[in-house]
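User: Could you check the structure of this?
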Amino acid sequence: MQRFRVSEDSMRPVLAPGDEFVATRSRRALVGDMVALPHPQRDDFWLVKRLAAGPGDTVDGRGPLAPGEAWVVSDNPAEGVADSRRFGPVPFDSLRPVVTRLDETTFAEAVAMLTAEDQALATVVGRHGPPPFWHRPPGFPTLTWLILEQQVSLESGAAMYRRLHGLLGEISPEAVAATGEAGLRSIGITRQKANYLLDLAALIADGELDLEHLDRASQEEARSMLLGLRGIGPWTADVYLLSALRFPDAFPIGDRALQVGTGEVLGMTGVPDVAELELLSTPWRPVRAVAARIVWHSYLASRGRVEPPDPTVDHPSGRGA
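Assistant: Sure, the predicted structure tokens are below.
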């Protein structure tokens, strides 16, 4: 895994000058991927482009690309054509796909990158081992779990989710709506959270919230969509972006355990506030979601605790979309 910083406008609106991203060589690029590659005509200069065609494909009236060749283009050609339209095909093996969602492999690569750069994070991993790739399945069950977790412990949120599953049989918008406020409150869910769940179920049933579209959206669009929902604030939105949609730089800055844990990991005498945590996390961009998992790993391990088992996996149910 390698870090990059954007210096030009050729990939707007997805990437703007000053944006950072990481790219990997652990998987082969697919047509449509953003990729980093060495400039074929300049030494020590990298480009970020879109893979438009691969071996055997025909582009711009040319014959088929030869084995081992790729055609890369800018998303914003108005800013110039420093791409294959100027310098022709590039070696396919030179392409490094940009990491837009984490998986087990890229998560491990990011842990290795961060611990090579940051001694505090390296100390955590040396003491407690690498963190697990903690993630949750996207969809209605996980949004339900996060609402139930608001302002309570991880263990309490998981226990309430299991209680709700026992009541409903499956965690779905239809089942929640059919149970109603009285049914939800009968197992100890607060009136406020019951109404949040009922509102969410109604939005999905009415087609006003498309969870499949949410899965495909950019981090900024997905966050905006989530924050527009009653009962979902910045913490819930950011944890969903991190855990369910697996964005590399999602960082729930309002999470108390992340604030406390960061202060402990960095050897601070106090707990950083939101503004301080934003500044302290800057060196961990653009993989702050990985740094957050390392910090949480330290926070739990130092207290003799572990992440509770995922109740949405223990009790699988439909996505509700």
